[in-house]
Amino acid sequence: MGAHRINSMFRVIRLDVMLIAIIVSLSMPSSIQPPASGQTVVPNAPFKIVVLPDTQHYAQHFPWLLKLQTDWVASVSQSQNIVFVTQTGDIVENWDNQTQWRAADIAFTSLDGHLPYGIAPGNHDIAPDGTSPYFQQYFPLERLRNPATARFGFDQAAVAPFGSHGPNNTYRLFSAAGKQFIGINLEFCPTDDTVAWLDQTLTKFANYGAIITTHSFTSASGDRETASHSCQVWAGPGQNAATDIWDKVIAPGQHDNVLMFLSGHDIWSSAGAARRTDIVNGYPLHQMLSNYQEFKLGGEAYLRLLEFDIDKSVLNVSTYSPLTKTFKTDADNQFSLYIPFSKRFDVLTKQ
Ligand SMILES: [Zn+2]
To answer: Which of 53, 96, 187, 289 fits 274 for a cystine, CB–CB 3.0-4.6 Å?
Structure first.
């Protein structure tokens, strides 16, 4: 079962999806202000970000399905106004299997020079000693500084790495529908210095809407992953689980610009998805798990489409398979979330 939650910062209140829908419908009108006299309304076409959930079983057994996903994304990128692709980690099943890395390498060539993308290496991509030599070999910074980014208003120089971790922790800046965004990809269970870097990066780019992808964050039950449930099992003690990232970076209330956390890893949702929403500083912060690796064919090529409708203050989430050419239409995989883009960016542009 998937889960939907909405929580205040200090109180945990579980509500079903119907109540979230009511909140959305009640909240939306106040965020849509009529234009001032003489002001021209410029419609902002919705744009999309694609999420590629855990691809490890494709790389291991069905490399053609991973290629099918990236080929499909590339083929519809213009017609669907796709501006960014983020992979949630566990690119491969076995961190030291170069056949699997080559499968991923080949698949992502469909995006190279075409669409900007970020990858958040997962536990399966990292060696027992914490290094990630093959991820760094196949997806070096030069590759993530995708030449195609200029077409989308990306700042290539801003595809910045963090210290010795190389490409494991990166961000990129982009603009779409007249707003500024930062896509941050963090490695699995990041270290203290990486969490500090995240904190500093969110401060540095406080007027950018932040979309953060890290492999393990939201669990199948809609909780934030704890160290004992994720990091200590896979990465050893001393790493930061979702609860730690939340406590250190989000809970202090210093960042109003985080729109969402995207993650994979947890396999225990029969729907392949779960989510929760917390209200932080008065703004909803959405946390979404998607992971279909336990489905047939390693995931049936399901991927996520996040449609940002700025004018309506809505994020429309759908889940599509370019293999079966069908959408998953259950409530865990097709839904809309309220994001007060206008209100929020009005606040942000005051800086
Ligand atoms: Zn994992």
So the answer is: 289
List of domains in the chain: 46-348 (3.60.21.10)
Other C-beta atoms lying within 10 Å of the C-beta of residue 178? 11
Non-local (6+) Cβ contacts of 111 within 8 A are 70, 73, 74, 85, 117, 146, 148
Backbone angles phi, psi at 258, to 5 degrees: -85, 115
Helix (H) or strand (E) holding 234: helix 232-234
State the distance from the centre of ligand 1 to the C-alpha of 165, rounded, in angstroms: 19
Enumerate residues 6+ apart whose C-beta is below 8 A from 252. none
Q: Give per-residue pLDDT as tens, 261-315.
A: 999 999 888 999 999 999 998 899 999 999 999 999 999 999 999 999 998 999 9
For residue 169, give the nearest of 151, 193, 148 by alpha carbon: 193
pTM of the model: 0.85
Compute the distance from residue 57 Cα to the ligand 1 centre, in Å: 11
Note whether 162 and 104 are within 8 A (CB).
no
91 Cα–ligand 1 center, Å: 9
User: How far is ligand 1, taken at its centre, from the CA of residue 175, in Å?
Assistant: 30
Query: Which pLDDT tens digit goes with each residue over 198-225?
Result: 999 999 888 899 999 999 999 999 999 9
Sign, CA dihedral 62-67-73-76, equals negative
Tokens found for residue 216: 């393990």
